[in-house]
Amino acid sequence: MIVAIDGPAGAGKSSVARALAARLGFKYLDTGAMYRALTWLALHEGVPLDDGPALEALAAANPVGFGVDGGVSIAGRDVTRQIREPEIDAAVPVVARHPEVRVVMRERQRELGRSGDSVIEGRDIGVVVAPDAEVKVWLVADPTVRARRRHAEREGADPDELAAELRRRDERDAVNTHQAPDAVELDTTDLTLGEVVERVAGLVADVR
Length: 208
Known about the structure:
Blueprint: E1 2-6, H1 13-24, E2 27-30, H2 31-45, H3 52-61, E3 65-66, E4 72-74, E5 77-78, H4 86-96, H5 99-113, E6 118-122, H6 125-129, E7 135-140, H7 143-153, H8 159-173, E8 184-187, H9 193-207
Parallel strand pairs: 1-6, 1-7, 2-6, 7-8
Antiparallel strand pairs: 3-4, 4-5
């Protein structure tokens, strides 16, 4: 079974998907982390971020891996912490917008998803990566709440700048952010993590 969780940045995708996977005993696949890992490798190796074919070749030669503990690796390196740095935040939209890069990444995501029960989160999972997913959820939240959540993740960051960053991110990501017509929309603004996980787990139980 595949559970597809999509939505904009700060809506709670990663937290919900990770907790849901732990609850169900499913694998957790963070597709955003894959693009972040490729971005880190490109910066590390000096590959121009505006060179789509070069990034495509880099992605094809260095499949992103996930550990049982949720760790992220690429090119034999554990980059779990490095891919959450502000430098990666700023650069990853540039990498992710290349169509040829997304083709390579989507095939890798499908490969990982086929290897067992999985919770996959991203921005186009229910539409492009796993259109046949048994459960599709679209998470949304008030922009102010989304910014507050990001601020909680980044100690010392300026709240106003984070809010502005989210607005810019939404604009950049719009072309690759798609809600499946059969996805269940869930507004997480006033819900706790546990409440969201409970609701999605209920959707899974309904189809199992």
